[in-house]
Design goal:
By secondary structure, the protein is mainly alpha-helical. The chain has 6 helices and no strands. It folds into 2 domains: 32 residues, no CATH class; 59 residues, 434 Repressor (Amino-terminal Domain) (Orthogonal Bundle). It starts with a helix and ends with a helix.
């Protein structure tokens, strides 16, 4: 690795540590956040048990429970599916019959 790239990486790491310690604030344009779907609210809105919801979306009951308890955060395909369900709740009817 050349020195310039290494120094840029090291600067980035040092900046991250300083932000984590509260020593500096990142520029607002560099801060990104994404809302995580409220799985429990969604499931109860659909009137489904955890096991029913899990089966409909192709996940385990334990995983749905972990999302609801905020022990785990949905990611990947599951997160995309949950976002679609937020936008169009009627999709759950297609998933229940699949």
């Amino acid at each position: 690795m050349d020195d310039k790239l290494f120094n840029e990486l090291l600067d980035g790491v040092n900046e991250m540590v300083a932000i984590e310690k509260g020593e500096i604030q990142p520029h607002p344009d560099r801060v990104h956040s994404h809302d995580i779907p409220d799985v429990k609210a969604m499931r109860t809105e659909f009137g489904m048990k955890q096991s029913e919801f899990a089966a409909a979306i192709g996940a385990s009951t334990g995983l749905v429970q972990s999302w609801e308890l905020k022990r785990r955060i949905p990611s990947g395909v599951a997160l995309k599916l949950l976002r679609l369900l937020e936008q169009d709740p009627q999709i759950i009817n297609c998933l229940k019959t699949a």
